[in-house]
Structures are given as structure tokens and as C-alpha cells.
User: What shape does this take?
Amino acid sequence: MFSVYIYTPNTVEPFIVNISQAAKTTGLTAKTIRYYESRKLISPAARLANGYRDYNQSHIRELSFVHHARELGFTLEECADLLELYRNKERKSSDVKALAQQKMTDIENKIAQLQTIRESLKELVSCCQGDDQPACPILEKLAG
Assistant: This one.
């Protein structure tokens, strides 16, 4: 949205945006950006004399990276690990793959757990008449 580049014959100069523009560009809220910065998940933004934050293209990439990783279910700690690998040009792709595979296993385990819960709820719902009477096997099962 606000990805603004200044093109010169052989270079691309980075742009500087404030926190609201960074939020619009990355799809995050300003509050989330400040939180990520306070947790030292992203590089600290430059501060103007008035205390406002200035974000450059590197910050926007980091914020977008974390946003996409969070959408895939990675925790903030896992995002920090992934960002460290992202920043390390000497990284091994096997390390990145291992983190992604572990996340996939975690998600598969969570799906299995949710399927078990769904089956239990289906059974409870099927036992209840759902009429105007006060008796309810769902409540009885939960109580006991």
C-alpha cells in the first residue's frame, strides 16, 4: 500500500514511514508494532526529536515477516528464532525446515485434539432433546 521507492539510475533509496504508515503497509496495528519493538522482536526504530518512530524498509520487511509467520501459527519466540535465521546469511536451510516441520507437527497434534473434542461435543449434542424441558444431558455430563 505505502511501499514507496525512489528510483535512481542504479539504486533504490529506502523510504522512511511513521508507525501508522508502517501499520497500514504491514497489516499490523500500531499497538502490535510497538509491542514487537518492546519485546525486541524487531530492530528498534529510529526516534525523531519529538519521540515519534521512523521505520525504514528493513523494519517493514521484519514486520511483514513476523506478521506472515504469526498467520502460520508461529509463536513470538518461534518468530524470533526464524527472524534470527532470516538475518543470518550463513544460515542452514535445514535449521529453518526443522522449525517449520516442528510447527507442522504441533498443528497436526492440535487438529487431532480438536477432532476429539468435536466428537465428544457431537455425542453430547445428540443426547440432548433440546426441548422446553429443564433436563439436559449436556449439563449433567459437564457437572459430573
Notes: Residues 1-9 have pLDDT under 50 and may be disordered. The beta strands are 6-8, 11-13, 46-47, 53-54. Helices lie at 19-26, 30-38, 57-71, 76-87, 93-127, 137-143. The radius of gyration is 23 Å.
